[in-house]
Write a structure and sequence with these properties.
2 domains; 5-stranded mixed β-sheet; Heat Shock Protein 90; about 375 residues; alpha+beta; 12 helices; rod-shaped; single chain
């Protein structure tokens, strides 16, 4: 038998589901390659009507015409598999089948499984249901006049029903693939949004703090003010480069570098940052997520906490950030805290914010061991 080209689901198209209208064979479709092989193998069953026509008690010309009609029927069936005008193919198959009736008689019903297959797999939805049922049940109608024809229904009905099931499975598979693609696109958008937020949030906070510091230093320590302004320019260039890399998914984070950035950001806001432990204490598989979370946590402290001191603890199974700022007024929410939760969850970890009296304590627990 043959199989249809994958159909677009209603959710993926604005109009009614129809058979694809693009011309030409679907040679890039794996269903085309494998199903064409199956369809060719299935042609062996046409040997029975061919033998019946050749051995029929009829005039040689009639037998020859019948054999030619069966051969044309087979060729049209195969050609119809890649042809985008399935109704014309169906009409031609029916006409050729009828042409065999004078010689084959009831035996012409042996061609109906092929008609049912074409109807089930190639006709547009939902007309293919009615056409397949008609082809499969025709032997029962003929049996009202010629009872032996009922036997052909035992072949045509299962074949037609099976091909409808195959088409439905393919259709559902295509729908599932489209859903998976949509989910992948959504996940990628969320990744880009999260990474851009983390990159720009940190960099813009550092730029604001350094610009404010430079403004306060003008007239008091011009050399340091110029140094802070040059750092603002360097941070802006770095943020632009990181944002570009993030969009294409190329940016990686180094925990040791992020610790130094955190120190620099804290000092720009006149906050003392102390690190307990070493970046090398964190397992390599957890260092990227620890770096991202550290960046966001220190950025949040610099922007919102009004703290004078921050302590960072780096350990194999956890990352802790404590500050002596104004503390929590409820469960943190927003893009930054959501990003921390998502990154920790992706690494199999957990996140807890606690009141540090004064200030806030963020503890990220990360899994350890070979199964982590």
């Amino acid at each position: 038998m043959s199989a249809p080209a994958p159909e677009r689901s209603p959710a993926a198209s604005s109009g009614p589901a129809t058979h694809p209208a693009a011309p030409g064979p679907r040679r890039d479709d794996p269903y085309y390659r494998w199903s064409l092989v199956i369809a060719i193998v299935f042609m062996v069953f046409l040997a029975f009507p061919l033998l019946g026509a050749a051995q029929a008690d009829a005039a040689p010309l009639a037998r020859g015409v019948t054999v030619a009609a069966i051969i044309a029927f087979a060729a049209l069936y195969l050609w119809g598999y890649s042809e985008r005008r399935p109704w014309w193919v169906l009409a031609g198959m029916l006409a050729l089948m009828v042409a065999t009736v004078p010689v084959l008689g009831v035996g012409a019903c042996g061609l109906l499984p092929y008609v049912a297959t074409h109807a089930a797999l190639e006709l547009p939805r939902p007309a293919h249901y009615a056409a397949t049922a008609a082809a499969a049940l025709t032997p029962l109608v003929v049996a009202l006049v010629e009872p032996p024809a009922a036997l052909f229904a035992l072949i045509a009905a299962p074949v037609g029903g099976g091909m409808l099931a195959v088409r439905q499975m393919i259709h559902r598979g295509v729908e599932l693939g489209e859903v998976e693609t949509a989910l992948a696109i959504t996940a990628e958008r969320e990744r880009v949004a999260r990474d851009v937020h983390d990159v720009l949030g940190h960099s813009l906070t550092a730029i604001v703090l350094k610009a404010d510091l430079a403004e306060r230093l003008v007239g008091r320590d011009d050399d340091r003010a110029r140094d802070e302004i040059s750092q603002v320019a360097a941070l802006a260039r770095q943020a632009l480069s990181e944002a570009r890399s993030t969009v294409v998914g190329l940016r990686s984070t180094d925990l040791a570098d992020e610790v130094e950035r955190a120190r620099d950001l804290a000092s720009s806001g006149e906050v003392t940052l102390t690190v307990h432990g070493d970046p090398q204490d964190v397992p390599p598989r957890h260092r990227p997520v620890a770096a991202w979370i550290l960046r966001e946590a220190v950025t949040n402290v610099s922007r919102h906490a009004r703290a004078s001191r921050v302590d960072v603890i780096l350990a194999p199974d956890r990352l802790v950030v404590c500050d002596d700022g104004q503390g929590l007024t409820g469960e943190p929410s927003g893009s930054g805290s959501d990003g921390i939760r998502e990154r920790a969850a992706a690494a199999g970890g957990t996140v807890v914010w606690e009141d540090n009296a004064p200030g806030t304590r963020l503890m990220v627990t990360l899994p350890t061991g070979a199964a982590a």
